[in-house]
Each structure stands twice: as C-alpha cells, then as structure tokens.
Design a protein that fits this description.
This protein is α/β, with parallel strands linked by helices and 900 residues long.
C-alpha cells in the first residue's frame, strides 16, 4: 500500500496548491469611492485646503465649529432692519459651513473606522504568524492560521477606497495573501497525512460492505432485468424525440456562434491595434532607459578602474615598504646571530686553552674536575627548521627563503584534518586531549635538521597562543606518530633529523585567520642557545563550479513517486562517465543538505586533492553526511548553529542558496554568490567563513526576496560550452515566458495545453487572459530580474553574449509556474533539465525546443527529465540532486599574484 500513500499525498498536495492559487487570487481590495462625498468634501474646503490625515480632519472640524460660533454671534448683534440683507448672507454662510462640518465629520468616521480595521487586521496577522511558528503544527493549527490570514485580509478589505489607509491596505493585502498561500499549502500537506490514516480504515470497511453489496446486487439485477426491457422501449421513443429537438437547437447554436466569432474577431483586431501602440511607447521608453543605463555603466566602469589603479598603486607601495622592512629586520637578525656565534666561539676556544694549560692532577688529588659541555653554535646548516615553503612537494635548503612570511601564494600549507569527522558533540579544536592522527597522509610535514653538537640539548616546539587551540603537531618516531606538546613544557625526542607532522583542526574563520607561527628552540640548562621560526597557513576550502567535471550524482530514493525520475537520471548520467548514487532516507532536497568542496596541497609528482564538504545544520539527526563511494576520503564539517527561521524563509540556509561562478577576471578560482531575501539572508556565519578563505570572495548577494524558496539556484546557473574554459550564464526570464505564450497564440495555438499533467494545467489563451498573472511576471522582470542582470554583469564582468534568458513564469508566492529549466545540472557536456511540459506542436514540445535553440550556439546537449513529483513540491532537478565534482587541477597559488 506504500505506493497508494505516495499517490494520495501527491494528489492532496496538488489540490492544496490549486486551492491556494484560487484563494490567493488578487481580489478587489477596497470599496469603490463615494463620488458625491468626494465632490462635497474637496469642492468646499476653505482656502483650498485638503486634509491629508485624521489629525488634520480633527483640526478642520474644530475650525469649522469656531467659524459657525463666530457667525452666530455676529448675526445676533445686527441692530438695524436695514442690515437684514447681511442676516441673509450670514444664514447662507452658516448653511455652507454646516454642510462642510457634516462632510468632515463623515470623513472622520470613515477614517476612524479604517484605522480600527487596520489595527484589527494587524492583530489577526500577528496571531496567524505566531500560530505558524508552532512546533509540529497539525492541519487544524494550519487551518486556524489560514482562517486568521483570511480574517486579516477581509478586515483590510473593509477599509474604504477613499480612506488615507487605502493604498497601504492594498500592499498589506498582497503580503497577507502570500502568507495565506503558504498556510493553505501546509494545511493541505498535513491533511493528506491525516487523511491517509482515515482512508486505510475506510478501505477495510468498504471491503466488507462491498461483499454485502455484491450479494444484494445479484438479486437486484434479476429483478431489474425485466424492468430494463420495458424502459428500453420507452427510452428509444424518448431518444428519437430528443434527437429531433437537439438538431433544432444545434442549428440555432451555430448561428449564435457565428455571430459571436464575428464580434470576437472585431474585438481582437481592436485590442491588437492598441497593443501595437502600447508596445511602441514601451520600446521608445526602454531605448531611452538603455541609453541612460549605458552612460551610467560607462561612468561606473571608469570610476572603478580609477579606484582599482589607485588601490593597486597603494598596494604596491605597501608591499615595497613591507619588503624593505623585512629585509632590514632579516639583516639585523643575521648580524646579531653572527655576533653571538662569534662570541660563543671565542668563549669555547678560551675554555679549551684553559683546560690544556691546567696541570695534571697530583696523587693527593681527591677528585677529577669534569669539563663543562661545549655550547653548539646555531647556523642554517646545523639548525634547519623548514616546511614546504616553495610548495614544490619537497623539503630542502631552498625552503629556508621566505619561510617566516606566509601568504595564499607562498609558504607552507596545512591540511584540515578533523579527526572527529562530525561524529562528536565537541568540536575538535575545543578538545584538550590529542590522540594520534587518523590519517598520516593528511599531515603537513616539517623537518628539523640538527648537528650532533645539539645531542645534549633539549628541543621544544611552540606555537603562538592564537593558533595553538586550532592545530596539532606530531613527531614521527620508531613507535609511530606521537603528539607533541606545543606549550613548550615537554621536549622532543632527540634525533639529528626530526620529522614533524602538522594538521589543522579547523579552517580559517571569523575568529582565526588560519596562520600559525611555529618556533623550534634548543636549550642547555634552561638557557636558549638556538631558535628559528616558520609561518604556516591552512589550505583554503573552495567550491567547484557547475562547469567542473562530475564524478557522481546523488539522489534520494522516495519510492514509487520518483522512481521514473531516477531511471531517467541514470540513463542520462551514466553514459557521461559519472555514476548515480541513490541515497535511502528523508532528504528530498539533496542540494540543501551539504555543499561539496575541496582542498589542494602540493605533492612531488602531482597535486594532492581532498574532498571536504560543509554539512547543513538543519535537523542534524535526519541529515548524516552523504559519503561518496568514489571519495572515501570525503571529510565533513559544520559551521555555526541552526537558525530559527519563519516558515516563509525556512529554505534560506539551504546550500542550493550558495553557488560559485567559473573562473572570472580577478577571481581565478571563481566567486561565490548567494540569495539575500532581506529579512533572512543566507547564514552569515557561513558567509564569514567564505570571506575568511580569501580566495572565492567577497560573496555577492542576489535579491531572492520574491522567490518562494529564497534560493539563488532557482534563477541563475552557469553552463559550460563545448569550448574549454568558456561558459554561458542562464537566468530565468518571466518576460521571455510571457512572450513565448503570446507567440504561440499569435500562431493560432491558443487552445493548446501547457503545464501538461500538472496542478497548474491550462491552455495558452487561458493563461494570457489571466492578466493578474501576466502583469505579475512582467513586474518581476522589470523590478527584479533586470536589476539582477545588471548587477551580475558588473560584479562578474559578463558580456551580453554570455547571458541566456530562459523562458520562465512564477506564481504570486514565487514558485515556478511551470517546471524551472534554469534549476538544472550540467554533467560532463550534458545539461539535465526539468521537462517543462510545454505545448505539443506537431509532436514536439515547443518550450523544450526553445531552450535547445537558445543553447545551440554553445553546443550544449540537453536531456529533459520527468521531475513532476518535485515540481508539485516547488522544486526541480538541481534542488533534488547533489553532485561530486572534480576539483580544479591547477594549483590555486599559481593563479594568484605574489604575496596575495
């Protein structure tokens, strides 16, 4: 029965979305204005003043009352009958002022009632939001939240159109309608689960009744057989009469239809003429705006270039000063060391001469004096402490130069090696007990080479206080790798060639820059006789872009509801050389569970690459790390703590909302970008972590406040072309989606079905007649997508020829109205795309063919997958999968400028 449950859930979810769309359709929000009242109020104000607020109405009412009182006093003081004409004038003025006072008092009542309705709606909305944040809400809870949102919306609709609060009420109504859609959807999902349980009991009861019904039906059939024969004769006579009547009515209907077609054709031609005029006006306005935008862009580019040149000049001056200062310090240090060595050598020679001049001991001597040990002199040859400074995979004398100054482009690298691998409750860097390394291959080697003269000395390794909690050091001995005390309390095991291994317990983050100063010290009798220091840094964590080769695609097994999707996924992926890994569990949206990345380290013959992933903090007990069978060395870590987000922003921290570009100018390893929904941006702790890596940042924020999921992969995707190193950027375009429908209707395909088999199934003409939907999508293009495109061109230095605007449409709450073709997955020369279920024209999906035409210049092969199950849950192919991609094979330090 499991497959029956899945089908039932899918049907109920689809029904919930339809109900949400019907209930959330934008209605007439406020009452029509009272024309008589407006004329009375606006046409009779003293001195041309028009009140703009309730307080001004109060003042106007008081002023009118004072004028009436003054007028009454003046009329009573008229002493002579000859001034009776003034009395008539006063009476006329009194009537006018009285009428104005009545109008003002009526408007005050309207505004007071509007304010009461506004406050009442706000209270209802607050209650609905509080209910929506309840843990584990039931369908009744969501239904209560839904009723409150409806009451809030209906209360706002009571605000009259001529109220000062009318415009704000319209905006607030649209906001509440979006929240109502979410509550409706959640209620339907909860109801579907409760309904399944009730239906199972109902099925058993129906089976019993069905057996009784069959027995009763058998006897009933025998009785009715005779009645059927009698009715058949009468039915034939009735059908003949109805046939003649239908023929007459059909003739009348055809005549009416012909007249209606003629009327519609006339209206269509008139609308077409008006549309052409409107488009021409819009085209001229867009051309003017484009010229202004290009001028602003040119000025911005010039300003940025000047700033860049100034920053580059200042950076060069700073680096030159730093280099000169370091050189001076190094010369001072070498001079002091030389003087110290010379002094020690003179003392040693003096001691030897004194010992040789001393006479032999006499028989009366009772003891033989023991000579003091010689103090070894430190020099680069007899006290060498180095790591792989030049990153050539070997440690030798050449690594001595520059070992004390680490940067991303030079200096010894340390590997992240979290030995807990996300199993412990306490982070590794907070644990005080240090055990042997789990994998010695992950250690970064450091050599301490000594002469025999240090045999009687004690040797210590210490680290600076800031870095000490974040690293571990081990010494390679005959008994294996042993932990080293880096506090300076316990000496090393002596050897003339000491091999040390260093690992980092975490990456650089907001609290630690990832560098450590290691100091080797030799002591005799508690006195330091030699020391030297090296600086090392943690190799940064990086994300492979969507243009990188894929080794594995991961997908969650949801049972029968996505079995066809998995089958199509395997057929598309396996011929490319990658494999499909099917994960058992509750993670529907694999893209959100973890972000796969990598780390680079130098090696003698080749580059060492390690896969390292950030795991999501949401529901940790349901999200164990997904290990790739091809990458047994995959390491997983977490950043920060889970955040409590409201239902509208609950998907903001999903890792589908964290993406990286291919290599772009100024960012040879790509640049991170993410979705920013305003009130709930992507997790700031993760963004600080990306910034601390200093190689794929600073991250660029993209406005996703209008999307249901708030995730940037819904609207932007970078796709590799057939030319190595080149790519195009696909971006969702609601305007292109509307034009696609208009193009179909213009070709006579208005009655063709779109969104086939989905809860939003309709025809081309019906979609275009939904003016609210069309205007909503055109608004998104102008106010949201166009500014995003300009920002991407500016931040990523993209040209218009690199941008492909993919037809898409979005519902009022920000979900993809038809399957989102941008939320796709590039896999080794092939693009896995959601089947848009577009109109079938001569056996070809028109929307699919449009995407193929857009990608044809790039030479991209497209495979369309049936992701209907995910589409009804408001997601698509990329959201449903995750990929393990081959890391960049060019060392990042070779792509960066010196001392970066």
């Amino acid at each position: 029965m499991r497959w029956v449950r899945y089908i039932a859930i899918a049907i109920v979810n689809g029904f919930g979305v339809v109900i949400g769309i019907i209930w959330v359709a934008v209605p007439t929000t406020v009452a029509q204005p009272s024309l008589n009242y407006q004329l009375a109020l606006s046409g009779r104000q003293p001195d041309g003043e028009t009140p703009q607020s309730l307080s001004e109405l109060y003042k106007l009412r008081d002023r009118l009352k004072v004028q009436l009182d003054n007028l009454a006093k003046s009329s009573d003081s008229a002493p002579f009958p000859a001034e009776l004409w003034k009395s008539a004038t006063h009476r006329q003025q009194s009537q006018t002022l009285t009428q104005q006072l009545q109008n003002v008092q009526s408007q005050i009542q309207i505004e007071e009632r509007a304010k009461y309705n506004w406050d009442d709606a706000a209270k209802l909305a607050a209650q609905a939001a509080l209910i929506g944040r309840t843990s584990n809400p039931s369908s009744a809870t969501w239904e209560q939240s839904q009723r409150l949102w409806e009451l809030a919306i209906n209360t706002l609709r009571l605000i009259p159109h001529d109220s000062f609060l009318a415009d704000r009420a319209i905006d607030k109504t649209i906001e509440y309608q979006g929240n109502l859609s979410v509550a409706t959807y959640e209620m339907q999902v909860a109801r579907s689960v409760e309904k399944i349980r009730a239906e199972e009991e109902e099925i058993r009861e129906r089976a019993r009744k069905e057996q009784e019904k069959k027995e009763f039906a058998r006897r009933e059939i025998e009785r009715k057989e005779q009645e059927k024969k009698d009715r058949a004769r009468k039915e034939l006579e009735r059908q003949e009469f109805e046939k003649q009547e239908l023929a007459r009515k059909e003739i009348e209907r055809q005549e009416l239809a012909r007249k209606e077609l003629e009327r519609q054709e006339f209206e269509k031609q008139e609308l077409a003429r008006k549309e052409v005029e409107r488009q021409e006006v819009e085209r001229q306005e867009l051309a003017r705006q484009e010229l202004e935008r290009q001028e602003l862009a040119r000025k911005e580019v010039e300003r940025q270039e000047l700033e860049r040149q100034e920053l580059a000049r200042q950076e060069l001056e700073r680096q030159e000063l730093a280099r000169q200062e370091l050189a001076r310090q190094e010369l001072d240090r070498q001079e002091l060391a030389r003087q110290e060595l010379a002094r020690q050598e003179l003392e040693r020679q003096e001691l030897e001469r004194n010992q040789q001049a001393t006479s032999q001991p006499t028989p009366e001597s009772t003891a033989t004096p023991t000579p003091a040990p010689a103090t070894p002199a430190a020099s680069p040859s007899n006290f060498l402490f180095v790591g792989d400074t030049n990153r050539d995979g070997q440690i030798n004398q050449q690594d001595e130069a520059g070992k004390e100054q680490w940067s991303l482009s030079s200096g010894a690298l340390i590997s992240f090696n979290d030995r807990n691998n996300d199993r412990g409750k306490i982070p590794t860097w907070k644990q005080t007990k240090v055990s042997a390394p789990r994998r010695a291959a992950m250690l970064s080697q450091v050599n301490l080479t000594l002469s025999e003269s240090f045999k009687t000395s004690q040797l210590f390794i210490t680290a600076d206080s800031i870095a000490s909690p974040h690293i571990s050091v081990f010494q390679k001995t005959g008994d294996g790798w042993q932990p080293v005390d880096i506090s300076g309390a316990k000496p090393l095991v002596f050897s003339t060639n000491i091999v040390l291994g260093v690992e980092a317990k975490q990456f650089a983050d907001r609290n630690w820059n990832g560098t450590v100063n290691l100091k080797a010290t030799a002591q005799n009798n508690g006195q330091e006789i030699a020391s030297t220091t090296i600086q090392m840094g943690v190799s940064p964590w990086m994300i492979a872009p969507n243009t990188a080769p894929v080794t594995e695609v991961q997908v969650s097994d949801r049972g029968a509801v996505n079995s066809e999707f998995i089958s199509q996924l395997k057929q598309a992926v396996e011929p490319t050389g990658a494999r499909v890994k099917i994960i058992q569990g509750d993670r529907t949206w694999m893209q959100d569970t973890q972000k796969n990345g990598y780390v680079q380290l130098p090696d003698k013959s080749d580059l060492r690459l390690f896969n390292v992933a950030i795991k999501s903090n949401s529901e940790p007990e349901k999200n164990p790390p997904v290990k790739s069978t091809q990458d047994r060395d995959l390491k997983v870590f977490k950043i920060g703590n889970p955040r409590s987000l409201d239902p509208v922003s609950q998907w903001s921290d999903g890792y589908g909302n964290l993406q990286v570009t291919p290599p772009i100018p100024g960012h040879p390893m790509g640049r991170v970008y993410y979705g920013n929904s305003g009130n709930a941006s992507f997790n700031p702790e993760v963004l600080d972590f990306i910034q601390a890596q200093r190689i794929q940042g600073p991250p660029v924020d993209i406005d996703t406040s209008w999307l249901l999921t708030r995730q940037v992969d819904e609207i932007i995707n970078f796709i590799p072309t057939q030319t190595p190193g080149q790519y195009v950027m696909a971006i969702a375009s609601p305007e292109a989606g509307v034009k696609l429908l208009e193009e179909l209707e213009g070709k006579g395909y208005g009655d063709v079905t779109i969104n086939r088999g989905l809860s939003t199934q309709t025809t081309v003409s019906a979609a275009l007649k939904n003016r609210a939907l069309i205007q909503h999508n055109l608004y998104l293009q102008n106010q949201k997508l166009n500014p995003i495109i300009e920002k991407l061109k500016r931040e990523f230095l993209l040209g218009d020829d690199q941008i492909i605007q993919v037809p898409a449409m979005f519902g009022y709450s920000g979900y993809a109205w038809w399957p989102n073709m941008v939320n796709s997955v590039p896999v080794n020369g092939k693009l896995l795309v959601s089947n848009p279920r577009g109109p079938m024209i001569e056996g070809v999906d028109y929307t699919q063919e449009r995407l193929r035409q857009l990608l044809l210049p790039a030479g991209v092969s497209v495979s369309f997958l049936d992701d209907r199950y995910y589409q009804e849950l408001k997601g698509n192919v990329q959201s449903a999968t995750n990929t393990v991609r081959k890391p960049e094979d060019r060392p990042f330090w070779q792509s960066l400028p010196n001392n970066y």
